[in-house]
């Protein structure tokens, strides 16, 4: 790779005349100061390839000049779609070099979803990873009149495409090197023209309650927030991050792009979404960021492996995990722990914790974060008990991620930490959390009404979340303000809290709780196909599909045991004891983003699910034992179909509240 790059090398870039207030300036500074240090890696055909900061600067310069050669101008939008790939990240910076605006999109979006973003953002150019993404763009091109040019990274399957204005990535870079040679001052003039308060990116929200909104962030928003985050957690140039989350998500943009450029550390792109866990083990990152669903999936994998292990390994695992839950987190936080527990934990580290961390690829992790939605306390405690410094942060796209962060040794399971650096937080009279900070977005693109409803004239942002500060000054988020309600007896109903309790069990993948303004709580559940299938196979339980497995009496018994355990836990909480789940059913299909039931960041669209399955919800409250339903589904190729089922509805016995017993 290096030899081929040398043959096309451009002259060393002069440093920009302004401060390091834009990403192109940061890149040139890293190329000069860090030079040969690794900036980004990609696993391709089983081999890790690495580019240094100097090489990345050359690649970005060639691409930026190539974009200029084919007509890209200041203010233009570059839509970016695909998995995490070095060339897509370079495309982001190349557009910024020219004063353009990258618009990353979710790679698993169907054509109709892409069409909304493309039309709304008025993108003239698109950078796509491969044939799949190109095909989706070509499908909607006639409905997106602003879209003029499509550039593709992976040429496999595209060599015989004859559409006009379809460019190979390398072809654009070749044009760029020729353009750069003919216009030697152009690139630096463009970089020098940029300002920190220029728009650096438009990130579209996941659209939980409607169409996504385009969040406008400036270079200052992202860079200052990234710099504060790096300082807070003591990140440095030698850290390594696995970049596997959607590029359209603000978490990836800030951690894999923003903090990488600001901190000068290396990011690694996995070979595919299917190999993330294997690639995680190979990379051994020092810093890891994941939404709760990833931690839940990893925990499910661990539990499945333990079920398949021999009796001695299972016994050792469960014994030492009991020790870990009692003393692991206090030891991690540097607190006093009885000598006996400390010795047992050290022994457990030899036999269980260290091997498990190594298997998961977590051996080198100094810091791990979770955000996006609330993580179940039990799941959170599991990782910290293993000695993994997992912390929660509370953030939003509109905040450039950071609203609160958890300081080391002050991590609490039920809070999201203290205000992040330079962030102010206040609680409104109705309990809603508001904040303002250097990372606060400028506005929603082409939506002044939504901007005014979310952001006050003096910069305070309405989060829509209900919360309060505890006695230690840490913020506790209860739920979405609009979702927190009351049962008919006046007691609190917090659906997200209940759903997280349910999802702690490896057999439950998704849960949607109902109970607001009703007499009792119910739940629609999805089983985790991998975990339950593994459980069923060990017991010789036959099944032919998700639907058949979910309807098995044995599976209902398994899931009912999980629900009953949740009720026992709730009985110990004075505030939530009345929220025990009285009835549940197992859905005949998995909730799916293609069917509109989840967002592209895998959040449940609660109101949509309630409306789509209103017949089932009504049946849960009418006392029916069974309910027939026919549901429309979307297949992988975009075709529509339907599935029918006769679902069982289960009653769950209530557990007497502990307070009442006493």
Assign the CATH class of the domain at 2-13 and 21-285. Alpha Beta
**What does the overall shape look like?**
globular
Strand share of the residues? Answer: 15-25%
Radius of gyration: 26 Å
Fraction of helical residues: 40-55%
Which blocks of ≥5 consecutive residues have pLDDT under 50?
Answer: 1-13
N-to-C span: 72 Å
Total beta-strand segments = 28
> In CATH terms, what is the fold-level topology of the domain at 2-13 and 21-285?
Rossmann fold
Mean pLDDT: 91
Query: Helical region count?
Result: 23
Taking strands numbered 1, 2, ... along the chain, how are they ordered across the largest sheet?
Answer: 4-3-5-6-7
Helix and strand content put the structural class at alpha/beta
- Supply the CATH architecture of the domain at 2-13 and 21-285: 3-Layer(aba) Sandwich
Specify the CATH homologous superfamily of the domain at 2-13 and 21-285: ANL, N-terminal domain
Oligomer kind = single chain
Report the sheet with the most strands, covering strand number, pairing sense and barrel closure: 5 strands, parallel
Task: Walk me through what this model shows.
- By secondary structure, the chain is an alpha/beta fold.
- Among the domains are: 2-13 and 21-285, ANL, N-terminal domain (Rossmann fold, 3-Layer(aba) Sandwich); 485-661, 2-Layer Sandwich (GMP Synthetase, Chain A, domain 3).
- It is built from 23 helices and 28 strands.
- The strands form 7 sheets. A 5-stranded parallel β-sheet has the order 4-3-5-6-7, with helices on both faces.
- Helix 15 (377-385) links the parallel strand 13 (367-370) and strand 14 (390-396).
- Helix 3 (53-69) packs across helix 7 (169-182), helix 5 (111-121) crosses helix 6 (131-140) and helix 13 (311-332) packs across helix 15 (377-385).
- The longest helix has 22 residues, at 311-332.
- It is globular.
- The model is unreliable at 1-13 (pLDDT under 50).
């Amino acid at each position: 790779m290096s030899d081929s790059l040398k043959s096309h090398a451009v002259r060393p870039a002069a440093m920009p005349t302004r401060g390091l207030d834009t990403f192109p300036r940061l890149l040139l500074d890293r190329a000069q100061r860090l030079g040969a240090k690794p900036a980004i890696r990609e696993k391709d055909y089983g081999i890790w390839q690495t580019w240094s900061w100097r090489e990345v600067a050359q690649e970005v310069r060639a691409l930026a000049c190539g974009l200029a050669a084919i007509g890209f101008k200041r203010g233009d939008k570059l839509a970016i779609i695909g998995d995490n790939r070095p060339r897509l990240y370079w495309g982001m910076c190349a557009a910024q070099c020219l004063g353009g605006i990258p618009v990353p999109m979710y790679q698993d979006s169907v054509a109709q979803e892409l069409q909304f973003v493309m039309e709304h953002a008025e993108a003239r150019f698109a950078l796509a990873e491969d044939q799949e993404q190109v095909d989706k763009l070509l499908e909607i091109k006639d409905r997106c009149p602003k879209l003029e040019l499509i550039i593709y990274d992976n040429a496999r399957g595209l060599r015989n495409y004859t559409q006009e204005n379809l460019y190979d990535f390398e072809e654009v870079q070749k044009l760029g090197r020729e353009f750069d040679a003919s216009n030697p001052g152009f690139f630096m003039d463009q970089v020098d023209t940029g300002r920190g308060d220029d728009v650096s990116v438009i990130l579209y929200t996941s659209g939980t309650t409607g169409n996504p909104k385009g969040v406008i962030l400036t270079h200052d928003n992202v860079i200052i927030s990234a710099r504060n985050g790096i300082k807070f957690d003591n990140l440095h140039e030698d850290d390594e991050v696995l970049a596997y989350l959607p590029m359209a998500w603000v978490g990836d943009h800030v951690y894999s792009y923003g903090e990488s450029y600001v901190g000068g550390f290396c990011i690694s792109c996995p070979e595919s979404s299917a190999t993330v866990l294997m690639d995680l083990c190979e990379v051994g990152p020092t810093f890891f960021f994941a939404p709760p669903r990833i931690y839940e999936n990893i925990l499910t994998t661990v539990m499945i492996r333990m079920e398949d292990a021999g009796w001695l390994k299972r016994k050792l695992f469960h014994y030492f995990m009991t020790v870990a839950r009692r003393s692991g987190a206090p030891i991690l936080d540097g607190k006093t722990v009885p000598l006996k527990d400390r010795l047992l934990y050290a022994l457990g580290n030899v036999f269980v914790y260290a091997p498990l961390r190594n298997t998961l690829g977590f051996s080198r992790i100094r810091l791990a974060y979770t955000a996006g939605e609330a993580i179940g306390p039990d799941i959170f405690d599991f990782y910290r008990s293993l000695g993994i410094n997992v912390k929660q942060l509370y953030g939003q796209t509109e905040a450039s991620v950071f609203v609160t962060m958890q300081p080391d040794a002050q991590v609490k399971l039920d809070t999201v930490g203290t205000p992040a650096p330079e962030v102010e937080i206040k609680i409104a009279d109705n309990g809603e959390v508001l904040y303002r900070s250097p990372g606060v977005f400028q506005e929603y693109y082409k939506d002044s009404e939504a901007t005014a409803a979310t952001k006050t004239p003096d910069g305070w942002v309405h989060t829509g979340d209900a919360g309060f500060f505890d006695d230690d000054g840490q913020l506790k988020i209860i739920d979405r303000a609009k979702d927190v309600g009351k049962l008919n007896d006046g007691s609190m109903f917090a659906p997200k809290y209940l759903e997280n309790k349910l999802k702690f069990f490896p057999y439950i993948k998704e849960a949607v709780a109902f109970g607001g303004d009703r007499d009792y709580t119910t739940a629609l559940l999805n089983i985790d196909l991998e975990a339950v299938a593994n459980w069923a196979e060990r017991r010789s339980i036959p099944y032919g599909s998700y639907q058949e497995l979910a309807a098995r009496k044995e599976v209902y018994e398994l899931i009912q045991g999980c629900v009953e355990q949740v009720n026992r836990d709730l009985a110990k909480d004075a505030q939530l004891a009345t929220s025990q789940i009285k009835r549940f059913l197992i859905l005949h299909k998995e909730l799916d983003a293609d069917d509109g039931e989840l967002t592209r960041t895998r959040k449940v669209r609660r109101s949509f699910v309630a409306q789509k399955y209103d017949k089932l919800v009504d049946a849960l409250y009418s006392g029916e034992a069974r309910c027939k339903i026919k549901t429309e589904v979307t297949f992988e190729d975009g075709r529509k179909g339907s599935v029918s089922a006769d679902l069982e509805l289960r009653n769950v016995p209530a557990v007497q509240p502990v307070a009442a017993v006493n």
